[in-house]
Amino acid sequence: MHALYITHPQVKIDPAVPLPEWGLSDRGAERTRKASRLPWARSLRHIVSSAETKAIETARILAEVSGADVDIVEAMHENDRSATGFLPSPEFEKAADWFFAHPEESFHGWERAIDAQARIVGAVKAVLDRHDPQQPIAFVGHGGVGTLLKCHIEGRGISRAEDQPPGGGNLFRFSIADFSLAAAPPTCDWTAMETWQG
After folding, report:
1. Residue 174 belongs to what H/E stretch?
2. Adjacent-strand bridge partners of 192
3. C-alpha 141: how far from its chain's center?
4. Are the beta carbons of 100 and 9 closer than 8 angstroms?
5. Phi then psi dihedrals of residue 48, to 5 deg
6. Residue 124's pLDDT band (cuts 50, 70, 90)
7. How do residues 19-75 score in pLDDT, each as one tens digit?
8. For the whole model, what pTM was predicted?
9. DSSP states of 30-58 as a string?
10. How far apart are CA 64 and CA 33, in angstroms?
C-alpha cells in the first residue's frame, strides 16, 4: 500500500499576518476542490494535516467528497522561519536556496534543514506505525518539509533540486511498507494534485 504527501496550493499572502495563519487564496481553494473530485481523493479514508491554516483548509476540502477523517499533527508544520518573519519573494528564494544548501546551519535563526527533516520524518512515521495500511491515507503539509521528507524517502542528501514545482498543490506517492518512493505506476514524483490520475 501507498501514502500520498500533498502540499497546500496558493495562499493569501499578508505580511501583517503570521505565516502559519495564512489561508488559501481563491485559486488555491479552487484547485483543491477540483482535486477532491478525482478518484484518488475520493478513495481517501484518512488525511493527516499540519496545524497551519493553509494545510488544514486544504485537508478539509479534500475530505469533503471522500468523508475522510482529518487529524491534525502539530509536528508537520513548515520549517520554522519566524526568526526573520515575512520575506519578499526574491529574498525568500535566496534564503530558501541557502537553507537547502547548508542543512546543518541556521539561516538567521531559522530551524535547520536537518532538524526540520528529522521532525517531519518522525511525524509521518509515527502516524504510519499506527495506521491500517489497507486504508488510503494522505499527509497534507508544506513544500519545504515535503521536500526534506522526499529527500529522506529517496535516500538522497538534502537538496532543493528535489523541490516541488512552483505554485504548490503538488503530491508524491510513497510506499508505506518500506518508506520509499513508489516505483509502480501511476507516477509517484511531484505532480499537480488536480491533474494526477492515481
Report:
1. strand 170-175
2. 170
3. 3
4. no
5. -115, 125
6. very high
7. 999 999 999 999 999 999 999 999 999 999 999 999 999 999 999 999 999 999 999
8. 0.95
9. HHHHHHHTSHHHHT--EEEE-SSHHHHHH
10. 9
Q: Please, which residues bridge with residue 46 across strands?
A: 69, 137
Cell readout for 139 is: 499527509
Q: What are phi and psi of 190, to 5 degrees?
A: -45, 125
Q: What is the mean pLDDT of the chain?
A: 94
Residues in the chain: 198
Report the chain's terminal Cα–Cα distance, integer Å. 13
Degrees to nearest 5, angle at CA 146 with 143 and 149: 155
Residue type, 156: R
User: How far is it, in rounded angstroms, from Cα 57 to Cα 49?
Assistant: 9
**DSSP H/E element including 65:** helix 53-66
Per-residue pLDDT at 187:
56
- Collapse the DSSP code of 67 into the 3-class scheme (helix H, G, I; strand E, B; otherwise coil) and give the result: coil
pLDDT score of 178: 77
Cβ neighbours for 107, distance < 8 A, ≥ 6 positions apart: 84, 95, 98, 99
pLDDT at 196 over 90: yes
CB 38 within 8 A of CB 25: no
Q: Which residue has the higher pLDDT, 85 or 61?
A: 61
Side-chain-side CA neighbours of 63 within 13 Å: the count stands at 20
